[in-house]
Amino acid sequence: MKTRAFIFLIFSLIFLFPGIGYTQQLVTKNDTKNEEVIFGNNKIRITLDYHQKCNISCLEVNGQKVIEGASGIFTQIKALQKTYSTLHLDASPKVEIANHTVNVSRII
């Protein structure tokens, strides 16, 4: 019985928890002059543009740019013949960063 428990423990450590001991450096940079936040690690990096809009203007995965451009990823809703989009806001939203968490509010 002890052998089975030991084998299960070894199996768990090898196959179920391969990330133990490997940490990745998180980067969060708020460029208030250009109104953009760059965050991520060496595997994925996201650029959030909040200059009178709110969109992901660049997405890099493993060093390769997957999304890049003025529109990038954004939200859009069409209701009653009118379109609302985070690409065209009345004012720049409020961005707060704490403990590697990016909080965006006041999207009007």
Radius of gyration, CA atoms, in whole angstroms: 21 Å
- H/E series: HEEEEEEEEE
**Uncertain stretches:** 17-21
What is the approximate shape? globular
- Count of helical segments? 1
Amino-to-carboxy terminus distance? 63 Å
Number of domains: 1
The largest sheet is: 5 strands, antiparallel
Helix content: 10-25%
**What is the typical, i.e. mean, pLDDT?**
80
Describe this structure in words.
- This protein has about 110 residues and is mostly beta strands.
- It has one domain.
- About 15% of the residues lie in helices and about 45% in strands.
- It is built from one helix and nine strands.
- The protein has one helix at about 1-15, and strands at about 25-30, 35-40, 45-50, 55-60, 65-75, 75-80, 80-85, 95-100, 100-105.
- A five-stranded antiparallel sheet has the order 1-2-3-4-5, with no helix packed on it. The chain has a two-stranded antiparallel sheet with strand order 6-7. Strands 8-9 form a two-stranded antiparallel ribbon.
- Strand 1 and strand 2 (about 35-40) form a beta hairpin.
- The longest helix has 15 residues, at about 1-15.
- The radius of gyration is 21 Å and the shape is globular.
- The N and C termini lie far apart (about 65 Å).
